[in-house]
Each structure stands twice: as structure tokens, then as C-alpha cells.
Amino acid sequence: MCKLCETNPVYEFTNQRKLCKNCFIYWFNKKFLYTLRKYEMIKSEDKIAYENKGDFRGIVLEENLKQFGNRARIELIKNTKKYDKIALSSSLDQESYLFVKSLIENKLSKINDLLPKNKKEIRPLYLFLDKEIKLYAELKKLKYKKTKEKKSEWENFIDKLEESHPEIKQAIIQSYLKIAGRGKKVEGRE
Ligand SMILES: [Zn+2]
Description:
This protein is of the alpha/beta class. It is 45% helix and 8% strand.
């Protein structure tokens, strides 16, 4: 941990580890790459289209894909014509809401495939909380539309549970991954 983390943290994990601005950005970029690699979301030479509705998730997805594209032999395309993969901007919050809702309504056929080996849709932000994505956008001074998202009853219910069970969204997605039957564990908090 750097000295700045002690004096000027911008983020604290549930295990009380704190990160300063630079360390947080570094952690975010590294975790993004790790997610792409671990779940084999992108192959070299892939043409990648991506979703950007101008919200904080879209802009952070674009920023991270661009950084990745500078290092990897992939092509990023803005329109959605002739692509190999499309990167969607959904977050850990959104995927955990959807999973719980599908479970309780007995509609598991509606959940997303988060382990998209050889699939067209990838979700590189699905291990990041909305608050982490938003903080990244603010720290990097990325411009996005600040519209307030309306939350459903389900979403408020899970947010409420999160206050007393801080890792509940991660736990939900871990359960999803077990049910998906691949036996891969979600990365921990660091
Ligand atoms: Zn630091």
C-alpha cells in the first residue's frame, strides 16, 4: 500500500483496505483485464463493438476497452455492424438484481450468460459495483449523463440487504456462477 492510501483514500473495500486515486485506477484497469482474460471474453483479431448510452457504465467500458485495444490486437468499432463480439455495459449491481429476480420469479431462462466463451455478447464490467464504476468515471474526469436511474422494488430490496450484508451482490453472482456449472469462482474483492 502506498503512503497516499493512508493519507488520502478515495475508496474503501469491505475488508477495510483503502486505495488512493492512482491505486484505485490501477486496481480497476487490472481487474478489467483480468476479467477479459479469465473468462476468455476476447480473442486477438476480434472486432469488438460496444454499448455506450452515454451513462457512466458506457463511458467507463469504452475507456477501458480503448486502453486494452492499444495493447491487444483487436479492433474497436463504434457502430454495431459486422462485429465478432459486442461488449455490454452491465454491472455487478444490474446482474445481481436480474439473477435474484429471475430466481424468485422462476424464470432462469431469462438470466444472462456471464461466462461467454465463444459467445457474441460479453459483459466485462459484471464484476464491478456501480459505485466503483462511477468513482472511476469521476476520478478520470470522464463525461457522462448524470440521470437518476429509477430502481424497481427488487433493486431497492437488494440495496437494502446490502447495508447489513456488504458483499451480498458478489455472493449472488458467485451463486450464479456455481449454477452455471463452470465451477469458476468470482474474483475476490481485491
Ligand atoms: Zn495508493
